[in-house]
Amino acid sequence: MLSIEKAGENELKFTGRFDASQAEYATQELAHIRETIVIDISELEYISSIGLGVLARTFKRLEENGHTIKLKNPNNHVKDVFKFTKLDQVLEII
Predict the structure, then answer these.
(1) Which helix H or strand E contains 14, and what residues bound it?
(2) What pLDDT, on a 0 to 100 scale, did the predictor assign at position 81?
(3) Is the CA virtual torsion 70, 19, 17, 47 positive or negative?
(4) The whole model's pTM is what?
(5) Strand pairing class (2-8; 69-72)
(6) Which residues share a beta bridge with 93?
(7) Which fold has domain 2-93?
């Protein structure tokens, strides 16, 4: 189960597991984002290829308007997933 909470101005916090069963929920939550967003993923336990796709599509949409996604505080497992898929070269990890 994935939980998405507002953590501040232009900041969200993802908690739990981001897999195919949560893709529609995450897509809906991210659809209203129009500016650069920081997503705290310190409590994200798992992200599947579908979850990566949701973030990549959101990044592409934002980038078209000069904005981006910044991912904050990934645990080692999640950080490795971004590294292995080379999405760490596209999405900024802070």
Answers:
(1) strand 11-18
(2) 96
(3) negative
(4) 0.94
(5) unpaired
(6) 71
(7) Transcription Regulator spoIIAA (3.30.750)
